[in-house]
Amino acid sequence: MALYGPNHSRLSRFCRAISRDNEEAKDLLSETALNAFEHFDKLRKPESFVYYLFGMASRLHRKKTRRLKFRGVFSQEQAENIIDRSARPDDGLELQLLFEAMQKLPIEQREALTLFEISGFSLVEISEMQHCSLSAAKARISRARQKLSSMLQTGEEFMIQPNDPERIDTEKLRTTWVNFF
Q1: % helix / strand / coil in the chain, to the nearest 5?
Q2: Per-chain mean pLDDT for the chain
């Protein structure tokens, strides 16, 4: 518990960012903590517990999303009746657009950006978690930012024309992103 306590809030933010809603994030957080405690004896170095924890959360999320491909039939009517309680009402649209755009990023870039921007890990820690070089971690974050900015500015992903007065303000989205987490 002494190793887990200081990392709980960072892990919670990470799970919330990579999941679609709060309930899914809570499930992922609980499952990660449970697995970490059950397999704690397999940890070779206690100082690498944080990497062990975040790596486990990432793998559990990938496993869950991979399995979701094989579930049930999609119903548009049911999807429209689902109430989203995960975001505050005033930030709902901006966050939804931001997370939809993030889901279109490659998984390595999305995870690196989430670990850096939301969970507050250093570049060195991210490179160790993702088993890549420091320059690769920097490149992933940079490319993710560029692609995300491009998607949000063009608005093509959201059916908004570039000269449309309703165009998404990326600075407002960034502020919402920072304030939300």
Answers
A1: 70, 0, 30
A2: 79
